[in-house]
Specification:
single chain; alpha+beta; 5-stranded antiparallel sheet; 22% helix
Length: 148
């Protein structure tokens, strides 16, 4: 396992947040978000973060790189429910020459609902391993430095 992050439940430890409203289709018969729906929330926040650091995912792909998910881990703390507004907090963790990790906190009204980690590998568009683009560590670090 490559995971090296232990995501915090304190929102102040994160550099970015993206809001998502829980859709009815993501819930089960009890009105609770199905466990599999959390992964698209993480993806949506990652894509929004890339846009925020001036590298939308389409631009990344135009550069001939994809960020494949190598591992994903979610710790469920409190259920999310239909129509909740979830703040998906995010921070970029450990980076290597070809991989990076992202830690997440999903929270509603200041309550931690889940934490998560995803590990990503840089690959060419035909799936071969590649180096991380040089802008990623620089932009992630600059974003973290400007966060309150």
């Amino acid at each position: 396992m490559r995971l090296a992050l232990d995501p915090s439940t304190d929102q102040a430890d994160y550099h970015y947040a993206h809001r998502i409203r829980v859709r009815f289709a993501e819930t089960d018969a009890m009105g609770i978000v199905h466990h599999a729906a959390y992964l698209p929330y993480l993806e949506e926040a990652r894509i929004a973060f890339l846009r925020e650091i001036d590298h939308p995912y389409l631009t990344v792909r135009d550069e001939g790189i994809d960020f494949t998910v190598l591992e994903a881990f979610v710790r469920y703390l409190q259920p999310l429910r239909f129509d909740d507004v979830v703040e998906v907090h995010l921070l970029v963790g450990a980076l290597t020459r070809a991989t990076f990790q992202i830690g997440y906190l999903l929270a509603c009204d200041g309550v931690a609902n889940a934490t998560a980690v995803t590990v990503h590998g840089a690959v060419t568009t035909d799936g071969r391993p590649a180096r991380l683009p040089g802008w990623l560590p620089d932009r992630a670090r600059a974003f973290a430095d400007r966060a309150p």
